Amino acid sequence: MNKTSVRTLQQFLADQDAYHASIDGVRGPMTLAAVNATLQRHASQLPDGADGWSDRRRAVACLQVACQQNTIEVGPIDGLWGPQTEHAVEVLDTLQKTGSKPTPWRDQPTLETNPNGWYREAELEQALGSPTRKPPLTVVPCPWRLALAWDLGTSPSGIGCHEQVADSLARILERVHDHYGPQRLRELGLHRYGGCYNKRRKRGGTRWSTHAWGLAIDWDPSHNKLRWGRDRARLARPEYDTWWRLWEEEGWVSLGRTRNFDWMHVQAVKL
Ligand SMILES: [Zn+2]
Which InterPro entries does the UniProt entry name for this protein (predicted)? Predict the structure, then answer.
């Protein structure tokens, strides 16, 4: 719970006529009194034991009540500051500031563009040859420091991908780096590199994986497991919207964004 969310809370309390001090982002006694008064009015929505919660937890619970009141999905009123609550409070903040909720990110259409003329999966073998022979690979350096997802102490020198997608990949990495910066990329786990070229069949299938041509890259696999949907996968969160947009502008396809599984995976191949 940060200063912005305390402001969001104070604004909600002020709108309820429960708080008349300044919207300053500081959770002081006036805010606390207004929180308690508001929770009292919504006591039936609170679980048993809520009376014993800490001031902070009560403040979070009050924000959750505020979200529910505005039909923003926030989950159970438990006073805990998890990712769902954090996202819901961001939506509430936008609602307060603009009068409408942000376009839900899951309703934003994925960008359908193919500026580099990527092949469809069914065309790959004919166009690029069978992956039984190693494809021509180029190592694209990454502007931020990568770590192997399965061995974080090891830093690969770059991403070894099919030479046909190397320029596009280099442009994307540059833009991603410009947008987020190295520190934020680390916080987002985008240094956790899960591999590119890999001569293998699709997991649970007989067809070649797009990795077998060096046309796909996996990111942060431990937080984006194959079968996880957007409720669990880290890369499905809104803070990665720009990340995906930058790939999609170059025609790359996220299986997460298009099929809601394998959120780690992005490929320079059309479905
Ligand atoms: Zn993959």
Answer: Zn_M74/Hedgehog-like
